[in-house]
Amino acid sequence: MVTPGSSLAGFQKYRASDAAKLTVDSLGCTVPPAMPGIAFLSGGQTEEEASVNLNAINQVSATFPIPWKMTFCYGRALQKSALRAWKGQCSQKKAAQDELIKRAEINSRASVGKYLNKY
């Protein structure tokens, strides 16, 4: 995913649609059309940034033909909220499961460009 480097954090605002277009353009120059899919990592992004950026990428891909399936392979962006809710307490198991399901649903929607950011 093409996103601003850490030296630009807080200095320059960018829109997810900008990151999406740059990502798709970069992939178009480097990835063969025969590649079946691309799975993005969330590295350095918040959970929400990773979801919003993936969603924007899939919305760009809906406007003109792109030969790859764009999906996610998130670790932290799926687990962070769940771990925060769990706190290592058995009594928090349901809250952690609910958070994990919520993040999985968000990213599932984002992987087809249908995340509405309603959470």
Unreliable stretches (pLDDT < 50, length at least 5) are none
Output the strand order for the largest sheet. 1-2
What's the helix-strand series? HEHEHH
Please estimate the helix content: 40-55%
State the domain count: 1
Q: Give the rounded overall mean pLDDT.
A: 90
Strand residue content: 5-15%
Radius of gyration: 15 Å
What structural class is derived from the secondary structure elements? mainly alpha
Q: How large is the count of helical segments?
A: 4
How would you characterize the overall build of this protein?
The chain has 119 residues and is mainly alpha-helical. The protein has one domain. Helices cover 51% and strands 7% of the residues. The protein has helices at 16-30, 47-63, 76-86, 93-110; strands at residues 37-40, 69-72. A two-stranded parallel ribbon has the order 1-2. Strand 1 (37-40), helix 2 (47-63) and strand 2 form a beta-alpha-beta unit. Helix 1 (16-30) packs across helix 2 (47-63) and helix 2 (47-63) packs parallel to helix 4. The longest helix is centred in the last third of the chain and has 18 residues, at 93-110. The protein is globular.
Topology of helices and strands:
Blueprint (H helix, E strand, L loop, with lengths): L15 H15 L6 E4 L6 H17 L5 E4 L3 H11 L6 H18 L9
Parallel strand pairs: 1-2
Helix pairs in contact: 1-2, 2-3, 2-4, 3-4
